[in-house]
Amino acid sequence: MTFELLASDFYQYESELTQREKSALTDIRAYLDSDVRPIVNGCWERAEFPFEIVKPLANLGVYSFAWPETAPFENSAVFRGFVAMELARVDPSVATFVGVQNGLAMGAISATGSKEQREEWLPRLASGELIGAFALTEPLSGSDSARGLRTIATRDGDSWVLNGSKRWIGNATFSDITVVWAKDAADGRVLGFIVPTDTPGYTATKIEGKISLRSVQNADITLENVVVPESLRLQEANSFRDTAKVLKHTRAEVSWAAVGTAVGAYEAAVAYAKERVQFGKEIGGHQLVQDLLVKSLGNITASIGMVVRVSQMLDEGTQLDEHSALAKAYTTARMRETVAWCRELFGGNGISLDYDVARFFADAEAVYSYEGTREMNTLIVGRAITGQAAFV
Questions:
Q1: What is each CA distance from 118 to 29, 112, 122, in whole angstroms?
Q2: What is the CATH number of domain 240-386?
Q3: Contact present, 180 and 172 (Cβ < 8 Å)
Q4: Confidence category of residue 268, pLDDT binned at 50, 70, 90
Q5: Cα–Cα nearest to 188, from 149, 222, 141
Q6: Mean pLDDT score across all residues of the chain
Q7: Where is the Acyl-CoA dehydrogenase/oxidase C-terminal domain (predicted)?
Q8: CATH 2.40.110.10 domain range(s) in the chain
Q9: For 181-239, what is each residue's pLDDT tens digit?
Q10: Residue spans in the chain of domains classed CATH 1.20.140.10
Q11: Cβ distance 213 to 366 under 8 Å?
């Protein structure tokens, strides 16, 4: 199958990928277009997750690329970013599922697990045998997780007892394991635990009534005297700084997903502009419609340039928290602007799922907020600029 550059990648950043990366991206794109795109509007409307895609995505290596234990071939962070973008341009809910599986759950184990833990859990997650979730956010602490964590881990011999609650945890209604973050009752350190979801005292309840990422199965989690052996404590997670190592990487991936969300809306708008006839011609021939499209493409192009560089810095070992934070803050703001322009182009049809753009417009709101709000990421960058922390 021949690799084709996306028209929405206006400056052709994809052309810099290796041939092996282009081949893998082509296969992923073909599967998403043939098997995923036709079902996502129905899943979104019913608030259902398409479980039939889990194994095919695993077979394509989508969960595997980032980790030495599972990568099918040597690849770059830029390539992995384009995979995230590709997922989101078809469906941000699918991109979010994958981001939780391979970015947060596998990322936490890779960054803070022991060698034995990495070797045991990463291949099983990469193959789709197991589904993972990542539980940091709580009902009373989101942006202030570093200081406001209320879930407590109490040492009891060779085990730990977890008590607390978590909220907005993606994949958690059907995950096999959940990485749970809790404060050590003895000294307040933030620790991570691999918790099998069939452990007594662990309960996940689906959050209903969402208007965004409806196919993502978010859950409220309660932990009542959940006993976890020391062998399932992430051995290299000893403070919130270790948790932040995971978030630094996933913020960059979310930035790519934000670009993909904007691209999905933009591509729907371009297609509509070429088929919708008003005032005697296709609306793509009207100046104000072209203005909306050009502004959207400008946002997308600037955002791709930013996330490509941030991913290159990850490969080079020079990416810092503030680099991924700026990318997340900027690209999600431009995404929000872009999906609004694209929805505007459709007029009244823009609120119908039949034209796809409504789904991207709604889903952008969740992508804008998760993995750190714009305000919190702004403060991370502001601290880097001024040397002063403005957090409260």
A1: 29, 9, 5
A2: 1.20.140.10
A3: no
A4: very high
A5: 149
A6: 94
A7: 243-385
A8: 132-232
A9: 999 999 999 999 999 999 999 999 999 999 999 999 999 999 999 999 999 999 998 88
A10: 240-386
A11: yes
